[in-house]
């Protein structure tokens, strides 16, 4: 990390630091949705069975990716704290060992997923006409999961050192390449045979492999804050054990959210096709509007981690409060706009169905005025992760979905006169309740006692020396 960026992140204007980090992350997240949109566009040309094959495969692969993402959280957290502490040697060590752990984990998950794919699809009750396409798509996805994990880890480690522009450039290139490869692999051209729905999976596999390869090359060249050497990949059992147990709560948290999406879908499905369509449109809109605050939350995580590593606990707290306030304001304003424009938003996704437009607008207007609570929760949880308090983030996720939203949605929908409206009202109530819980927990200050770099006996001395080192981190 360049000296001027290090000074900005540890001593400079907090709003400027947040904006510097958040904007490239937001743009990368927007581009990342290009993968899904491109696949949906081309696969949609194959018919309903092909679309269904991709749709039923997504929750399975999402769950597996969520299980492995805790390792990325652990690596990014420790990287950020060691950057703040001035420990470039440990930044490089953490990066190499985390990449090693991610590769091993992804090989295990990929192999298990490939073998168990038929059983998983049968458990989901996939229709016979969809089964073959879904199995092919799922198996190719599991083969490529090593590249998905490696690139996700590259992004996380880059964020940890405060470098968010390089991943943006890579995502932009791979999204464009995926747009070109999708029709080529799906429909074929010249000597390239058409592979149908499996072609979309192969296109993603190729682009993710290229992205992962570029990421590793950047690490090995060592010009952007992390420098790896092949000898650094020799397993360090002490670190691997520490990172594993730090990452497990993060994996549980994301898996809880992934399973939550599946369970909520089952509950919604019990109300029929119109409710399913309404929920689908509302979920798509919710996914899009959270992209800006996800960027802010990731920027908060990087800055909080680096400042905790440097011993700037008070500054880390100010960063969290400012990021939380900004996220609350952004989503509250977007909520007001969504309330006014609800029918037009739904019509963008489903232009010719008056019932879905009316019901979708009703759903959006119920939940949108509490969107600010989502921004609060995302930033507080990011600060907990950045401090190394993964358990707190996990508990908030579990309380949010399994103790508040699902019981509330079930009771309101099934045991009151609200019916499907009970599902929709569970969203704002949950958002407000979890935001208040998160704020109260953060205000207690227990997160301030966790500092991962203190496990190193020399960290205090090195932190002081780092302040006068010429050139800072390279």
Automatic annotation (TrEMBL):
Entry superkingdom: Bacteria
Q: Where in the cell is it found?
A: Cell inner membrane
Q: Which UniProt keywords apply?
A: Cell membrane, Membrane, Transmembrane, Transmembrane helix, Transport
Q: Where is the signal peptide?
A: none
Q: Which CDD domains match?
A: MATE_like_12
Which InterPro entries does the UniProt record give?
MATE_fam, MdtK-like, Membrane_Transporter-Flippase
Tell me the membrane topology, using the record's own terms.
Answer: Multi-pass membrane protein
User: Which residues span the membrane?
Assistant: 12-31, 51-78, 99-124, 130-154, 166-189, 195-220, 258-279, 285-304, 325-350, 362-384, 391-412, 424-443
Q: Does the keyword Transmembrane apply?
A: yes
Q: Does the record carry Ribosomal protein as a key word?
A: no
| Name of protein | MATE family efflux transporter
Organism, per UniProt?
Massilia phyllostachyos
């Amino acid at each position: 990390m360049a000296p001027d960026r290090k000074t900005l992140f540890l001593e400079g204007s907090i709003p400027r630091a947040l904006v510097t980090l958040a904007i490239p992350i937001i743009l990368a997240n927007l581009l990342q949705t290009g993968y899904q949109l491109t696949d949906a566009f081309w696969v949609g040309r194959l018919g309903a069975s092909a679309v269904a094959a991709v749709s039923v495969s997504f929750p399975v692969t999402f769950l597996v990716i969520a299980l492995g993402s805790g390792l990325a959280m652990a690596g990014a957290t420790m990287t950020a704290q060691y950057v703040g502490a001035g420990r470039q040697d440990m930044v490089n060590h953490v990066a190499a060992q985390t990449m090693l752990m991610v590769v091993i984990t992804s090989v295990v998950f990929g192999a298990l997923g490939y073998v168990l794919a038929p059983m998983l699809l049968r458990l989901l009750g996939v229709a016979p006409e969809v089964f073959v396409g879904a199995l092919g798509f799922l198996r190719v996805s599991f083969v490529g999961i090593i590249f998905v994990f490696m690139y996700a880890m590259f992004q996380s480690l880059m964020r940890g050192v405060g470098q968010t522009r390089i991943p943006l450039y890579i995502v932009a290139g791979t999204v464009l390449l995926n747009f070109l490869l999708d029709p080529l692999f799906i429909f074929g051209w010249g000597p390239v045979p058409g592979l149908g729905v499996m072609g979309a999976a192969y296109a993603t596999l190729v682009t993710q492999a290229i992205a992962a390869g570029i990421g590793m090359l950047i690490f090995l060249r060592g010009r952007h804050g992390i420098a790896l050497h092949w000898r650094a990949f020799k397993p360090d059992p002490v670190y691997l054990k520490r990172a594993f147990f730090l990452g497990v709560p993060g994996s549980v948290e994301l898996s809880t959210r992934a399973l939550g999406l599946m369970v909520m879908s089952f509950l919604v499905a019990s109300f029929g096709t119109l409710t399913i369509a309404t929920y689908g449109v509302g979920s798509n809109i919710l996914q899009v509007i959270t992209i800006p605050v996800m960027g802010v939350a990731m920027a908060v995580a990087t800055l909080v981690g680096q400042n905790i590593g440097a011993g700037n606990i008070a500054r880390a707290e100010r960063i969290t409060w400012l990021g939380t306030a900004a996220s609350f304001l952004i989503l509250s304003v977007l909520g007001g706009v969504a309330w006014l424009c609800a029918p037009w938003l739904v019509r963008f996704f489903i232009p010719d169905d008056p019932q879905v437009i009316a019901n979708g607008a009703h759903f959006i207007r119920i939940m949108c005025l509490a969107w600010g609570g989502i921004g609060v929760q995302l930033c507080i949880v990011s600060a907990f992760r950045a401090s190394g308090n993964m358990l707190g983030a996990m508990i908030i996720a579990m309380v949010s979905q399994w103790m508040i939203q699902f019981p509330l949605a079930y009771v309101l929908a099934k045991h009151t006169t609200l019916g499907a409206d009970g599902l929709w009202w569970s969203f704002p109530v949950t958002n407000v309740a979890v935001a208040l819980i998160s704020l109260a927990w953060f205000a207690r200050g227990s997160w301030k006692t966790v500092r991962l770099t203190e496990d190193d006996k020399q960290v205090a001395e090195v932190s002081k020396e780092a302040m006068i080192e010429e050139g800072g981190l390279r």
